[in-house]
Amino acid sequence: MKLIQNYIDGRFVSGKREFADVNPADGTVIAQVSEAGEKQVDEAAHAARHALRGEWGRLGVRERAARLHKVADAIEKRFDCFVKAEVADTGKPISLATRLDVPRAAANFRVFADVVKMSGLESFQTETPDGANALNYAVRKPLGVVGVITPWNLPLLLLTWKVAPALACGNAVVVKPSEETPATATLLAEAMQEAGIPSGVFNVVHGFGPGSAGEFLTQHPDVDAVTFTGESKTGAAIMKAVSPTVKPISFELGGKNAAIVFADCNFEEAVNGLADAVFLNTGQVCLCAERIYVERRIFNAFVDSLRKKAENLNPGWPNDVKTDQGPLISAQHREKVLSYYRLAREEGATVVTGGGVPKFGDDRNNGFYVQPTIYTGLPESARCVKEEIFGPVCHVAPFDSEEEAVAMANDTKYGLAASIWTNDLKRGHRVAQQMNVGITWVNCWFLRDLRTPFGGAGLSGIGREGGMHSLNFYSELNNICIRL
Ligand code: NAD
Ligand code: 6OD
């Protein structure tokens, strides 16, 4: 059986214990993973600190950027290996990993290499009280050792989204990928070696959260900052863990995202766009729309068209190019999603489609598939309308006025993303600007420009990453004031 190891100070190493890496499509064990104990996390943090004092710490921006492009080259060279590993770990359709996850990993390195090379800093000419002049300018320095903790839904994409800017700014990192999807982080270590990233700059520790590698990393005194993507309640636990050492944090957390569909929209584009927004990656994207508000006069037609889309999805084997719906990540996560399917009925929902588990004539019955599901008829106070489910499911509700739609969309403790569907440009701007979220799409969804601010309000996160926002988190500014 294959063993997925930790990567510390340029070497692939094992911890004391192992855990199983399970294929969500049929429940089989595909590899054993070496869990990093406190000792390995400590070694990784020290290796990272040491690397900052070596060649990496002396490199100029131009050479750092060149090496990040080489990392992207090395990912592209291993494109098929990354796709295969990501599909096996997550169960996502091969078509999705091929068009989204792996290309975005390479793009993350290329974009942040270019952003850091092109970035400048502001300066101010300042009048002194005695009528002389002073010049203020700031310089960027790395934060130091950055702990990177990531989830299982887009494992390589989300890990590289943080590692690339952290390295671009000259930091060294210790990454703790999700225990559900360890494979591509260790593969990335091979790409780092090939690209000439010095030993200790990129380290991988595998394991779980509490009492394991995740917690050891957040509490480690040699870790200067923590960047985390995952559930809001995990974010709260990490905030507590980092508070004694006052580490800077960047959090990208959960969502209960709304979409508003006006009757003047391009109907077909809205249905297609929202079918993606609800069901992509089996609904396991933090940006997915779990609440859809539709103007009453097109409500029935919209629900019926979305139902047809859901019923046409093909829950096949992940490696089949015709598959567009994979399983959920784990038995435990499926139980959570199914508990919401049961709860929706108890709360009085009308089940438009789905609500259960598909039956196959093969080993997929041992996997973690659920049916794509659409509900209507729930009150806005229902738990299924308020809580993040993170599966292929949405609730669709009608509205009669723009004000009502905006109020319902904003009635949440989360604040990650929203989408507005209308052909009235003025309304598009007006409604988008009223959304209490970090990201609003108009007539599209998950259309990314990596230079833009990305993050959430409320329970959805702290801070923004993307372009200069990432550079601002992953570096420390030192303002220098010179009296002239
Ligand atoms: P999770 O919070 O359970 O786990 C994420 C990571 O944190 C894993 O690596 C896990 O091992 C680690 N972890 C757990 N407890 C920890 C602790 N106490 N200390 C340190 N590390 C700990 O999240 P998940 O189930 O893997 O991912 C799904 C969640 O992530 C959803 O809520 C989703 O909305 C969110 N998410 C948000 C974004 C975003 O950009 N806002 C992106 C993707 C996923
Ligand atoms: O596109 C990105 O940069 C990003 N962070 C996406 C997050 C998706 C959540 O599952």
Which features characterize this protein?
484 residues, globular, binds (2E,4E)-2-amino-6-oxohexa-2,4-dienoic acid, single chain, 16 helices, seven-stranded mixed sheet, 40% helix, six-stranded mixed sheet, alpha/beta, binds nicotinamide-adenine-dinucleotide
Sheet having the most strands:
7 strands, mixed
Which shape, going by the Cα principal axes?
globular
For the secondary structure, the number of strands is 21
Task: Note poorly predicted spans.
Answer: none
SS summary, helix count:
16
Work out the oligomeric state of the chains in this entry.
single chain
Rounded Rg: 23 Å
- End-to-end span in angstroms? 68 Å
Ions, cofactors, ligands: which are bound? nicotinamide-adenine-dinucleotide, (2E,4E)-2-amino-6-oxohexa-2,4-dienoic acid
Describe the structure.
With 484 residues, the chain is α/β, with parallel strands linked by helices. 52% of the residues are buried. The chain is built from 16 helices and 21 strands. β6 (123-127) and β7 form a beta hairpin. The chain is globular, with a radius of gyration of 23 Å. The protein has helices at residues 38-52, 55-58, 61-77, 79-90, 94-118, 155-168, 183-194, 213-219, 232-242, 267-279, 296-312, 331-346, 383-386, 402-410, 425-434, 467-474, and strands at 3-4, 6-8, 11-13, 17-22, 29-35, 123-127, 133-142, 145-149, 172-176, 202-204, 225-229, 249-252, 257-261, 289-295, 350-353, 373-376, 393-399, 417-421, 439-442, 461-462, 475-483. The strands form five sheets. A seven-stranded mixed sheet has the order 15-16-17-14-13-18-19, sandwiched between helices. A six-stranded mixed sheet has the order 10-9-8-11-12-20, with helices on both faces. It has a three-stranded mixed sheet with strand order 1-5-4, with no helix packed on it. The mean pLDDT is 98. Bound molecules: nicotinamide-adenine-dinucleotide (NAD) and (2E,4E)-2-amino-6-oxohexa-2,4-dienoic acid.
